[in-house]
Amino acid sequence: MSTFKDLGLPRWLCDTLSGVKITRPTNIQSGTIPEILKGKNCIGGAKTGSGKTIAFAAPMLAKWAEDPCGIFGVILTPTRELAMQIAEQFGAMGSNVNLKTALIIGGQSMIEQSNSLKNNPDFIIATPGRLAHIIQEHPDDVKGLKRMKFVVLDEADRLLTDSFTEHLGICFSAFPDSKKRQSLLFTATVTDAVRSLKDKSDNVFIHELDKIDDVVIPEKLKLSYILTPFLVKEAILHNLLTKDDFKESTVMIFVNRSETCELIKRILKELDIRVTALHSEMPQSERTNSLHRFRAGAARVLVSTDLGGRGLDIPSVELVVNYDIPRDPDDFIHRVGRTARAGRKGDAISFVTPNDLDRILAIEDRIGRKMDEYEKVTDNALIKDSLKSTLAAKVDARMEMDKENFGERKQKLREKQLLRNNTPVKTGKVTKEKKSKKAKSTKKQ
């Protein structure tokens, strides 16, 4: 088996890795680090937890140490939590060599972040939206980007979707031409969009451990479903979490929308379940605190949108619940991949409403496995233990969210964005003046 020294990394970096008990390279690291050091562009595909961050960070740091000049590299990633995690790893790997990093994400002071870019940090770890905003609003602060040597897209399959296209375009307009930098793309699933980038350059190699068409759900992961009427969804969830099978388990519950995430968290909290949440409507400090609580075991249940579906360093999870079925079968694979890791057993239970049948068939076709019905949540148990209390908790949670104007922040951000793009804003609110004009118009008719 090779060592990091065999891969061509300098001694100081090998010693730093050894100091944090990382002594042997993983397959993705062995397959990519030597080629990146030779100056090649890279597409690396391997599942979460395989060491992808070191696979791109180590060769970049090795090259940086040879010639530390201004902003050396930018790492773009789809979520704030992933950006923070990568920044921590860069901090640990560069702790002995005075490495300066800048974390550029939403939810924190843009002025402070813009100022930090003026000082030309060695590496920038950013979400595309915030970096694009700074490039547009403070172009003089990011002139150093034009001289950088590396750009990394982490979770590249997510970044290369329509929702990031505009922001990525703005970011890349501030970067050097592709011939003057190395481009590294890392992802858990090498999609066609990612793979097609190889055709645009001869200097790109692909190292893929888990081909998207060969994804295997671990044998020790038990896949089940519960046929779920809409009106009792929350009661079924409560009943499941309080069953003997799972009442002490570490659980991740995945939903499709932030509003659902917040509602479920509040309902479960009201029902005395140690729960926390992760969604885009939460302030950054709360999101960070929420992950810390779950990692530390202070909460045994994490309700999450697909923010928590991949990449994050989350401890052993014994049960994954798909409260909402994802639209994309690959998102299902990422979600259930949170359990049954490293040879351990795990359960993944999906709530299937009448509208979800096509999605479930697509998922079963994609993974090549059929789900079994989970039959321990019975009608009698539901009525006896969960229905009444869950309904009361839901009413209280809804009232609280309405009182706090949940979702208002997102609406304001959307309106700001539309104004920036010179698009008319429809708020849905009718002013007294408009009402008066409308009334007069009606009278005339």
In short:
The chain has 17 helices and 14 strands.
Q: Going across the biggest sheet, name each strand in turn.
A: 3-4-2-5-6-1-7
Q: Could you tell me the CATH topology label of the largest domain.
A: Rossmann fold
Q: Which architecture of the largest domain would the CATH scheme give at its second level?
A: 3-Layer(aba) Sandwich
Share in β-strands = 5-15%
* Uncertain stretches: 427-445
The number of distinct helices, counting runs of at least 4 residues, comes to 17
Overall outline: globular
CATH class label of the largest domain: Alpha Beta
For the secondary structure, the number of strands is 14
Mean pLDDT: 87
| Helix proportion | 40-55%
CATH homologous group name of the largest domain:
P-loop containing nucleotide triphosphate hydrolases
Tell me the major beta sheet. 7 strands, parallel
Q: How many domains, in number, for the residues?
A: 2
